[in-house]
Structures are given as structure tokens and as C-alpha cells.
Write a structure and sequence with these properties.
Four copies of one chain form a homotetramer.
Chain A (H helix, E strand, L loop, with lengths): L1 E2 L6 E7 L13 H18 L4 H6 L3 E11 L8 E12 L2 E10 L5 E12 L10 H7 L3
């Protein structure tokens, strides 16, 4: 679901932990939480009315330029997890999202993260975020 | 090393198992052995005098069309493993490789696999294997 | 959904392709389809009334011993895909599943695969499939 | 190599980018750089005289609790990359490492990152870093 009527903008997506995502500690390998953040922002963008796939086809990509994450507790195989993606900032050349990953059954906070993304052209050069994309995220 | 003077053509590459490649059984997650096969054939092709990266830039890719694998024993984190890639067949539109993954310390056989690859153009359509690529693999 | 009233037993699960699952050819990297097969069988087992996670906690794991796959067409980022998992065979020490991965929008067949799994104890040794597990798959 | 005679302690490891590590932007998917950081610290610890695998077998694991990364430039398939892992801090219950990932051919800086790790027991609870492990990192 997407929360559209009050600030801040956020979107939730839920799925189960895959076996392939665990490691020999018996929990999710830490970089996989960051893959889930990407699943969260893809779903957020789609819920705003544009697919990120279409956005790339139109010639604008979003590349992660900075990432911070704190790992509070571990998810395990087959756990249902929720990724809440919140719009933190829209800039002329990029977007920043915050993420909160929780365990669906217990509500326990697992990971908090933030990624700054920059808009790039097909050659990987920074470019202005198109107005059509900005409009998805900025309310008049 | 690449064995060039006798049939069949083969090439060995060695590396250590990454933590990210394990799963909660405490061993390597099975699909990662197949990623290693790709590492093996990339190294094989480079050893024959062409990089697969250059090959793609020249407009011809190799896509896996069939794959079979048998998992005999498990590799563990930080084990040194060896991937022996052997040329099985060169066809007008593809190449087949065999793989033998072993534990370097014990020589134990871990996985045997075979992949058939088809040559494709940038749009993903089957295309003839260029003569320059065939020449890498076929001895006169 | 799980088809329970007629042979053969099968189960469907659907999800969208993640960005992380693509490669520089612009399509899904081939080993990721095999990760999806694991998602399919996990969901199949849960739909039969047991979680594979519980099964492992009870001391019996299922390890892939053989795998075959044919790659017919490619999935792309954000495509909705369906994995149909079908029970192919139950043996005293293992289970074999077949998989059919299709594009949800077009119905196009993407990948067909088969995995043979052997039941193992916590030390990785082959063991008999427990009656409780067999009962999930074999109809009286 | 490991630089042992002057502060700060660091260690370099080099390898080539795998095809599986790229995404449809044609460059390395961002979380894979963080997997490489783990390869870097594993190699650092081994170079200090202990394998992290042995450390886990002795009952002490290191779990990532915080991670920050900046992505300066992209690595591509088959590029040779170097991960320089530097010891940033040793605490009673953890270790912090810094990472600098560069392109071997050009020396270009690709990614800088930092991970804080906490020492945990087999149940995942924070525990003191054993003296034998501390001794690997702290010079008398």
C-alpha cells in the first residue's frame, strides 16, 4: 500500500525470505537486505504511477551513490518481512529514500537504511531528474 | 593454466569460497557452483586469447540454453576450489562446455556440470558463431 | 494455489523480477531462475501443510543432488513471473520436482527445470525421508 | 599483501568482476561491492594468521552492525579490481574496517566503504572479542 494523503510519502511491500538469501550463520546475509531496499523503491515508484523499468527505457536511470545501513536484528529463512520505503528528499539530480525493514509476525525492527540515488543518462553521466519523474514524488 | 597440446582443451581456475555463497546448511548454496562455471568459461576464453567482454562488445553474446549439474559433495566457506572447464563441442551456433569442480586441498570431486551456450546478437536472436570465435576453439 | 484433487500435484507462485537478478545482457542472469525454483518448492511444501524451515529444524534437510534446466526465453526486470512446481517423484530418500517458469502477462514459457533432492541429516549424510514428510506428498 | 610494519594495518586482494555481478545498467550491481568488502576482510584476517572460518568454528562470529558506502565510479565485467581493507578500530566487542575498491588497470577509485562488526556467540548474542582475536589486530 502507498500512503498518499499525509507526509511523508511511504510505501510498503512484503515477501518471504528465500533460502538463497541465508548464510552459514543461519540468518540473512547482510547485503541481501539492501537488495530488498531496491525491491522496496521499485514498488514505491510503481505505486506512484511509473515503472522504473519504463523510466530506464525513457533514458534515465537511478544509480545508488551513497548507502548507509544499520542491522538491528536478523531475518531468517521463510520469515515474512516488510520493507517500508519513505521518500526522504528530491533533488534536481537525484532522490533519497529511507527504508525500514521489519518482521511481519512480530513487528520487530530488523534493518534501517538510506540510499541516495543520482539520475544518470544511458552513458552513466549525471543528468537532471526529468520533470515527469520529479512530479511523481513532489506534491504541488 | 590451459592445456593446449592434447585433446581435450581444458582450463583451470582456482579461488576461495565467499561467505556470501554459503547458506544456512553451512555449505555453498547450489546455484553458486553454476556461477563458478561461468567464471571458469570466462577464464577459459581469455586464456584462448579473447576476452568474453570484448566478444560481447563486438556484438556476439553467449547465452546458456541448457544446463545439467550433479552435486556430489559440498564446498564450505573459505575452501579453495578449482573449476576445470573443458570444451565439449563447437557448433555453428553455439558451444558446449563441461565443468569439474574440485576441492583443491583434497582433490575431492564436488560438482560436475555441462552448459550448452548459443550465440546471440544484441537483440537476443540466435546468430552464427563468428569465425574469429570459432577459431579460438577449433584446431586446424 | 495448490492443485490437490487430481494428479499431478502442483503449486503456483508469482512474483516480480528484481533489478539485482538482471545482468548486462539486460535479462535475468541464468542461475537466478534456479533460485526461483527453490522459492517454488518452498511454497509448494508450505501449501502442503509443512514449512521447509520447520522440516530443517526437525533435523531433516533436502539438498539438491541433480539439476537440469532448459532456458527457452528470457525474463526482464519487473516482469511478473510464475513458477509452477510439480511433484515428479517421491523416493525413500528423496523427492524430485519439475518446474515451469512462465511470463504472467504473456503466458510465454521461459524456463523448464527439474531438481532431484536427497534428504540429509544435520551432518549432511543421506537419510530416509521421514514418514511425516512423505505423507505430505503421497496420497493414500 | 599485508602491510605490517607501519600504521595503519591494511591488506590488498585482487580479483576479476564476474558476469553474475553485473546488472542491466551494464555495470556491477551496487550490493556486490559490499560482498567484495567481505572478501577483503576475510583475506585480511587470514593474512594476520587466523582464518575467519576457524574463528567461527571456535564459537565467535562477526556480524555486520553498521555499513556505509559511497559509490564513486562503476566496475564492469571482467575488470580486475583491488579491495584494500584497513583496520579502523578494535573495540572490546567488535572491529571496524574501512575499504577502498579501485580499478587495477587505471587506479581509479570505485567505492569507499566502512563496516562495523560485532562479535557474537553461536546464538547471535553480543560477546567479548576473544583475546586471541584481539591479538591479531592490536600491536603490543
Amino acid at each position: 500500500m502507498t500512503h498518499q494523503d499525509a507526509e511523508p510519502l511511504f510505501h510498503d511491500v512484503e515477501f518471504r525470505v528465500r533460502y538463497a538469501e541465508t548464510d552459514q550463520m543461519g540468518v540473512v546475509y547482510h547485503t541481501n537486505y539492501l537488495v530488498w531496499c531496491e525491491v522496496g523503491r521499485t514498488d514505491f515508484i510503481r505505486a506512484r504511477g511509473m515503472s522504473y523499468a519504463d523510466m530506464e527505457r525513457s533514458g534515465v536511470g537511478l544509480a545508488v551513490s551513497e548507502l548507509t545501513a544499520r542491522f538491528h536484528a536478523a531475518a531468517r529463512y521463510d520469515d515474512a518481512v516488510r520493507v517500508r520505503t519513505t521518500l526522504a528528499e528530491v533533488r534536481s539530480r537525484g532522490i533519497t529514500f529511507d527504508y525500514l525493514i521489519t518482521d511481519v509476525a512480530t513487528g520487530r525492527r530488523l534493518v534501517t537504511a538510506r540510499t541516495a540515488l543520482v539520475s544518470i543518462d544511458p552513458q552513466g553521466r549525471p543528468t537532471a531528474l526529468p520533470a515527469s519523474v520529479r512530479a511523481l514524488f513532489v506534491r504541488e
